């Protein structure tokens, strides 16, 4: 039997770190949820909520690009307790006007980690206005095309993510992104 989520990421009774055990158990749990899901969209939303709560993010979300790739819209958002929703602010927004060359911020693995202190001036105002101190986003790709992204924002300036936490979050984001593409392609949501 696996660890409960309350036990994950804590120290074992012998004082050893269980981060690796947590990561493996969480990854297995997420894959099991997605594999057995009757409704992939509902499963993805539940996993985003799980990640927001487990890692104490402020919000988690999915953005989808317009068919021509020039605009983006937030299609799902989960906010942690006491955090204001931003979904309504991000409907049919222009990349050219608000986030030019946004794709360049994602590394070769499709990951964009941002600390507000080191963000480009072009993005500083956008993220600072939302009180975001740290964010991680994963590109959603379809046959090499950037069709959107999913991400997690942290508004707590004192929250620092360990290397292990970053790895778990990145892998989870990549798994979710692949299921989002599958859902768009085979679930009839993408035209």
UniProtKB/TrEMBL annotation:
Q: Which SUPFAM superfamilies match?
A: GAF domain-like
Under the heading InterPro entries, the entry gives:
GAF-like_dom_sf
Question: What Gene3D superfamilies does the entry give?
Answer: 3.30.450.40
Protein name, UniProt field: GAF domain-containing protein
Q: Which organism is it from?
A: bioreactor metagenome
């Amino acid at each position: 039997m696996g660890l409960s989520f309350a036990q994950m990421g804590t120290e074992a009774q012998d004082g050893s770190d269980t981060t690796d055990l947590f990561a493996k158990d969480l990854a297995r749990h997420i894959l099991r949820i997605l594999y057995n899901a009757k409704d992939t969209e509902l499963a993805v939303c539940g996993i985003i909520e799980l990640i927001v709560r487990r890692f104490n993010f402020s919000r988690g979300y999915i953005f989808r690009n317009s068919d021509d790739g020039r605009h983006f819209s937030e299609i799902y958002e989960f906010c942690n307790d006491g955090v204001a929703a931003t979904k309504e602010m991000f409907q049919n927004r222009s990349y050219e006007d608000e986030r030019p060359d946004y794709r360049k911020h994602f590394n070769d693995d499709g990951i964009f980690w941002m600390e507000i202190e080191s963000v480009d001036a072009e993005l500083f105002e956008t993220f600072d206005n939302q009180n975001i101190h740290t964010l991680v986003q994963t590109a959603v790709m379809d046959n090499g095309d950037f069709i959107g992204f999913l991400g997690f924002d942290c508004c707590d300036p004192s929250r620092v993510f360990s290397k292990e936490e970053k790895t778990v979050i990145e892998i989870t984001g990549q798994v979710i992104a692949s299921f989002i593409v599958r859902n768009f392609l085979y679930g009839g949501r993408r035209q």
